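Ticket opened by: R.M.
Priority: normal
Category: complex prediction / small molecule

The reporter submitted a protein together with histidyl-adenosine monophosphate and asked that the result be attached to this ticket for the collaborator who will pick it up next week. Submitted input follows.
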Amino acid sequence: MITRPKGTYDIYGEDAKYYNYIKGVFTSISELYNYNYIRIPIFEDSSLFHRSVGEASDIVTKETYDFKDRGDRDLTLRPEGTAGVVRAYIENKMYGDVNQPIKLYYEGTMYRYEKPQTGRYRELTQFGVEALGSDDPMQDAEVISLAYRAMEEMGLENITVKINSLGDKESRDNYREALKKHIEPYLNDLCSDCQNRFKTNPLRILDCKVDKEHEALKTAPKISDYLNEESRERFKKVLEYLTYLDIDYEVDDNLVRGLDYYEHTVFEIVADMEELGNANTVGAGGRYNNLVEDLEGPATPCVGFACGIDRLIIILKELNKDRDIMSGIDVYITAVNEEEKLRALTLAQDLRLSEVKCEIDTLNRTLKAQFKQADRLKARILILLNSEDLKKGIITVKDNLTHEETKVDENEILDYIISNI
Ligand code: HAM
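Result attached by the on-call engineer:
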């Protein structure tokens, strides 16, 4: 038997219900916030991710799925959506659109060669939004509130927005120097990843899972002390707007994020749920004001977020573990002989065109087995077709809860069903 590749899973049954539900909530909230849908390719030129997510980031050094196609092109399965959206923004010259800022949302699978565990997969699904063209701190607050409200709408409890500011380039350069000076004496004591990060991206040492309790990290200088006036003011504004929007946040000095393109606001939405261990970050994002320019587009300030649908499925399943979320159908039509089956087929089509969810038998079951199947599908109403009735232009309808039977004129069957479900 061929089995699924490590780190992937099949979404079906209850998971699929949650998957569609989560996607539906994010889509309708994004539309309400006036974001428009964009579909970007699952694979892109490898250099896109090297130049955006970052040559030194864990995602690019250890986790990408790189391959050559038959035309010898270097391609990579997307590990995230922001880089592709920015590429599409530049390539399609969206910066020239009269409607600014450009606000986009997307959903789809991403690929990261991670060590699989609960909530951490190699094929993962994200829902994300990107607002391109506004530098206003209000845009940061809007993006965070969209993510937060969507999760609230899903009934998530105990979620916290962790937020920090990485400041502008000047602030980060000053801080990087101070941090390096502080870390250097401890360097041999830190894990090999941190030793590499020291050379390539020292800020990432701050969110090392291995060394997080180490003296060097605990006594490290804080980025907030290195923000210049402008960056500090900007961050203050974002927090002020979040307070106005009634969003619970926690400033986390150690939050630096694993992707290289961020500056100013960075945030993570964290769920308090033991089962997820350190895979409890359900959504994350931030501002990336230099990425469009780095990818050879015009200077464009941007902010966005993405959340992990797979993790949200785990959380919603746990929250609803005592509830049966598999909804029943409206109508099951029983039919045994050819004449009845033909009528069942056309009647089912008419009902479906009237938005009634119904099912017919396509396994040639006995009548008794069809009744059983109707119960399994939790049918609200049964339509019991029989040749005798049909000759008289009558259809028998049975309420599957009260078991009451009614004879209905065939011409009135649609109206009858619609008014009784
Ligand atoms: P990220 O933090 O790498 O950010 O991923 C966002 C979310 O995707 C995470 O918070 C998590 O919920 C989910 N996720 C990440 N890796 C996995 C995994 N292996 N298995 C399951 N879920 C996972 C980004 O991707 C940025 N593009 C976010 C962004 C958008 N920043 C600005 N705009």
